[in-house]
Amino acid sequence: MVEASARGAGDAGKGERDGAAGGGGADARGAEASSPPPKGSLDAAIVRFLVHLQGERRASPNTVAAYRRDLEQLSRYAHERQAQQGAGREPAEGGRGVRGARGARSEAGGGRAAGGRGRARAEAVEAEGGAASEAPVFTPGDVDVLLLRSFLGTLARTHSPASIARKIAAVRALLRYLERLGEVTKNPATALSLPKVRRPMPTFLNVDAAAEVMEIPDEDSPEGLRDRAMLETLYGAGLRVSELCGLDLGNVSWRSGPAGEREATLRVIGKGDKERLVPLGSKAVAAMRVYLEARGQLRHPKTGALDPRAVFVSRRGVRLGPRWVQKLVQRYGALGAGRADLHPHALRHTCATHLLDGGADLRAIQKMLGHASLSTTQRYAHVSVDHLIKVYDEAHPLAKARKTG
């Protein structure tokens, strides 16, 4: 089944303890008694695609898990549609509640019905007075435009345009992969129209609010020094939270500047394992230096253990995970800027917007943030212009005159 066979490809890295980034690998649920999907089936193709994403494409565990969920949903829908076509019934919305890729337990309590379809088809045959037999294998070649449009039609009742667009992208990627391998002759998903998705503009803090958030951590404790360095690095270097948590001590390069001041550069491993060098600003450098001097105090209280590689560690000496960092940023956002909804990515947006406001080139910002496309970086230009117009309307005397006139 897709879930059992691909669980190891999608659940790597789950499970945090005390803010530590878990490295649990394959989920224990993947060890459930189950049979592998039939060779040549859609389920088998999905499993191979997920392995390809994780191994060759170096996709993050979260990305692989998202693809797995979306493709499992298509598989469940396709299997029930195949089983119910003869009965003239439509599958459940979006393939929910269907014994499809997740499979159904046999009466003996052993393995799952191949492809999650055997039991449904057997019951249909028995209802007609015939002998129970296993349904034919549903192959990638059986995926056509009619199936996909029917699938998306059911999703439209319960899912947002953004969610539907993501699922279309997952199906397109799977079929494009199979087309390259010669396992399908064409990609029917290319005939689908993407729903219009309104992408919200990036949220960011103004300069004063950002400065207030940076000042909140208590610098009399090693945890406070860590949090100050963490906030300054998120804001000063524009890192993604996964990049921040993945920083190793060996990724920080120190050198002396022209006037003898200390400078630092981060070697960041971004999406797709792409590497880039990001400079740290003077405040981030100062905060990082002070924190690293106190880092040795963050050890496990009983064993004295301390992660020898991770830059940012918990009070138990283990690498901080994204969820823990998110909680810390929310806490300091509420205390410093009255923004309990502040998240690490908002500090990344803030970094980009302030760089642009300060005259930085879009290409330079793209390189610093690790954006694959310049169009992603250009979103900050729109934010910056909107912010400029708002400031103008609030401050310029002519704008005030127009409002009162």
TrEMBL record:
Domain of life: Bacteria
Region (Disordered): 1-41, 79-134
Catalytic residues, chain numbering: 240, 271, 345, 348, 371, 380
Principal location: cytoplasm
GO biological process: cell division; chromosome segregation; DNA transposition
Occurrences of domain Core-binding (CB) (ranges): 40-179
Pfam name, any one: Phage_integrase
CC annotations in GO: cytoplasm
Keyword presence, Cell division: yes
The keyword Phosphoprotein appears for this protein: no
Domain Tyr recombinase residues, every copy: 200-393
Family annotation (InterPro entries): CB (IPR044068), DNA_brk_join_enz (IPR011010), Integrase-like_cat_sf (IPR013762), Integrase_catalytic (IPR002104), Integrase_recombinase_N (IPR010998), Integrase_SAM-like_N (IPR004107), Tyrosine_recombinase_XerC/XerD (IPR023009), Tyrosine_recombinase_XerCD (IPR050090)
Cross-referenced CDD domains: INT_XerDC_C
Composition skew (Gly residues), residue ranges: 108-117
Function per UniProt: Site-specific tyrosine recombinase, which acts by catalyzing the cutting and rejoining of the recombining DNA molecules. The XerC-XerD complex is essential to convert dimers of the bacterial chromosome into monomers to permit their segregation at cell division. It also contributes to the segregational stability of plasmids.
UniProt similarity note: Belongs to the 'phage' integrase family. XerC subfamily.
Quaternary structure annotation from Swiss-Prot or TrEMBL: Forms a cyclic heterotetrameric complex composed of two molecules of XerC and two molecules of XerD.
Name of this chain's protein: Tyrosine recombinase XerC
